[in-house]
Amino acid sequence: WTIVERYERQSSLKIHQANPYYAEFSVYMKPLMDQPGEVFQYNELDTSKPVHVE
């Protein structure tokens, strides 16, 4: 299974990771998994530059 989280700003991700429940989640999930978890980050769109659609 997969968990997908989307954030508009990098700062929102940092706030999420600083939440005490963030670390607690992996502690809870680890015994339920038959393989080690993998975390991937994918940036869907580069928002550092304006996007123009014609």
TrEMBL record:
Q: What is the top-level taxon of the source organism?
A: Eukaryota
Q: Which PANTHER family does this entry report, sorted A to Z? A: ABM DOMAIN-CONTAINING PROTEIN, EXPRESSED PROTEIN
Q: Which InterPro entries match?
A: Dimeric_a/b-barrel (IPR011008)
The record ties this protein, via Gene3D superfamilies, to: 3.30.70.100
The protein's name is ABM domain-containing protein
* SUPFAM superfamilies from the UniProt entry: Dimeric alpha+beta barrel
